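dumping this here so i dont lose it
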């Protein structure tokens, strides 16, 4: 399954680590466009130049790990598409060009399901998308979440984080609840 990942999913660290961790497990094939990656870097830059540099380093690692993930949509594809927010057409164009099955986004309002269905795409939230893997790959997802939790504790110095609390803060509450139920 090919999944186009929107910038709003790549930018929050915990969400990105969970989504890309699932991709590293081979649960799906990630896709993005240069413009999506640039949106991530620009959003990080708002927190300071060091954050932008960190994001660009992460982007370089992503491109090295998944060299075939970058999709460059043609102008012709963008010209024939419509979305409520014209600024999001490039995301849909990348999904169409890359042959994605799923568009992973938090931006539901700007990606109407019926419009995506016309292009053979379905829209998924990161929470429900990742939650679905807990049933089919419980041990892998639990181990991934534990690694992400350990890194969050290490980076923040806050030993009070629990898996469920971290996932809830990362806008992944259903995932956190499902992982917690695994014990």
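and the seq i came up w/
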């Amino acid at each position: 399954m090919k999944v186009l990942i929107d910038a709003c999913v790549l930018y929050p660290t915990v969400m990105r680590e969970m989504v890309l961790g699932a991709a590293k497990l081979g649960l799906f094939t990630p896709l993005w466009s240069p413009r999506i990656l640039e949106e991530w870097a620009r959003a990080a830059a708002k927190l300071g130049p060091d954050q932008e540099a960190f994001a660009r380093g992460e982007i370089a690692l992503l491109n090295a790990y998944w060299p075939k993930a970058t999709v460059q949509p043609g102008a012709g594809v963008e010209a024939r598409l419509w979305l409520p927010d014209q600024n999001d057409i490039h995301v849909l164009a990348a999904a169409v060009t890359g042959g994605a099955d799923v568009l992973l986004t938090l931006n539901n309002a700007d990606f109407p399901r019926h419009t995506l269905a016309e292009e053979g795409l379905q829209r998924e939230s990161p929470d429900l998308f990742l939650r679905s893997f807990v049933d089919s790959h419980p041990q892998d997802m639990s181990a991934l979440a534990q690694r992400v939790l350990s890194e969050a504790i290490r980076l923040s110095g806050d030993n009070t984080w629990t898996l469920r609390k971290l996932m809830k803060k990362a806008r992944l509450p259903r995932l956190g609840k499902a992982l917690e139920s695994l014990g």
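The CA atoms of residues 21 and 144 lie 7 Å apart.
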